[in-house]
Predict the structure of Right-handed parallel beta-helix repeat-containing protein.
Amino acid sequence: MMSARFEECTFLNCRWEGHFAHDADLVHCEFIGRMNGCVWFRHGGQAGSQRRNIVRGNDFKRTQFTDNVVWPFGFPISERAWPDDFTPHIDVP
């Protein structure tokens, strides 16, 4: 995924294996299935980019996360619905 915006989408049986979401907006989407090998960034991937990814209101309650799914560098996790038994892995600089 290069630069993309998804609104009110359902990602059924999501996988994302080896994916780096540098420039992706995800707004009010639902994720159902196993999520493996994914890094979700808060800021755009280009050097010096001022672009801020819009990621809000997403529902991960029916997602099975693997250990290699990461939200780095202060990614805002509070506006999401998480599975009861899951704690997001946040990398901090």
Observations:
- The chain has one domain: 3-83.
- The chain has no helices and ten strands.
- The first strand starts at residue 3 and ends at 7.
- The chain has a mean pLDDT of 82.
